[in-house]
Structures are given as C-alpha cells and as structure tokens.
Amino acid sequence: MLRMSLDVVVLRLREEQIELLLERRDRPPCLDALQLPALRIDEGRDRDLESALDRLLQEWGLGNSYREQVCSLGSRDRDPRGWSTTLVYLSLVSPTTELARGRWYPLQSLPTLRLAFDHVQLIARALERLRVKSRYSTLPVHLLGEEFTLSELQRAYEIILQTPMNTAAFRKRIHRADILCDTGRKRTGKQRPAILYRIESPCCVMFDQVMNGAEG
C-alpha cells in the first residue's frame, strides 16, 4: 500500500539562533529517533492537502504559522515499510509560540542528532528554500514576534544569510516592499528608542532585486 504523508520543517528564531521542532518516535521503525512533525493523509478526513496540513499544524499548536510547500519526494527506500511519498512544507513561527507537542533543537546541533527516515534530507531542502528565498523576499519577517524593530528584522536576515547587511540599503528595500505597519509604539532600552512595526500583510512579498549582503 502506497503511503502518502506530509512532513513539516518548523523553524523559529530565538536568541540569535535558528531552532528546529522535532519529537522522539515511540514506535518502530526508527524507534527513539527524532522526527519532524508529520501526518499520514487520511482520505476520509482530509478534503485536500490544505486541510491535511491544517490538521497537522493544529495538532502541534501551530495553527496560525506561516507555511509553504517546498517539494515532494518519494521512493521505495525512504521508509522500510515500503514505497512512500511525502509532501515537504516549511513553516516559520514566532519565538514565543506555545507548542502542543515536541521540543526545539538548535539547528547547529543537527549533525549530532539521530533523525528518522530521510528527515535529514527533508530539512536540508527546507533550509535551502529559506536561505534562497530570503535573498529576494520578505520571508524572514515570519520568524519574528507580533511586533519588532527594523534592526531585529535586519538581524534575522543576517542570521539566515550568514552575512552582514548594509543598513540603509536594507531599510530602503523593506520599506519599498510595503508590508510593515508602524504600531505607533517604540521599544526602549540601552539603545535609543526604536519604532515597533507589525506585518501589514501575511503574504510573502518579492523584492525587485536580490539581496547582496553588505552591498545591499
């Protein structure tokens, strides 16, 4: 019997590091290995892919998270129980999201973890999507909280792309994308007060040019 499932690579940005959501399997195959949030599609319950994805994310407490499909993979080798196909999604959540299950693991610890099935490959595909798309879109904004400063948004890009940004050029690019709304409030602290923004639209907006690190 052909197995059709959804696997979701869920990421958050907390304390300047990207973290990955995983849980430990309590049954074979791959007993005690860590796995991504996953769901086998139920023909009786799931009207379409979107409803199946909604069901999965609700089970993990991630119902309002940003999500997009990354790729589909299938082979006779990815699951010892037989031929299987999965649709891989990327989901980005705020650092304060409360989980219903699973726990967060720093992305830098990934090489030391034992992952189930082909989940290392699935994670690599999703991370590549995040890095590539962050160069030409507003995707990283979905890793921030409900309100954030432009400096915090710039730092999110720098962490994902692993390169510093030219602040003036970055801010010009973000303002031109027209996705932010000034909340009228400011964040105060050791630095001078900074305007707090929120997302005007949940959509991912494409830039007219690719980000080029410190050169803008």
From TrEMBL:
The residues covered by the NrtR DNA-binding winged helix domain are 141-198
Q: What is this protein called?
A: DNA mismatch repair protein MutT
Question: Domain of life here?
Answer: Bacteria
Q: Which InterPro entries match?
A: NUDIX_hydrolase-like_dom_sf, WH-like_DNA-bd_sf, WH_DNA-bd_sf, WHD_NrtR
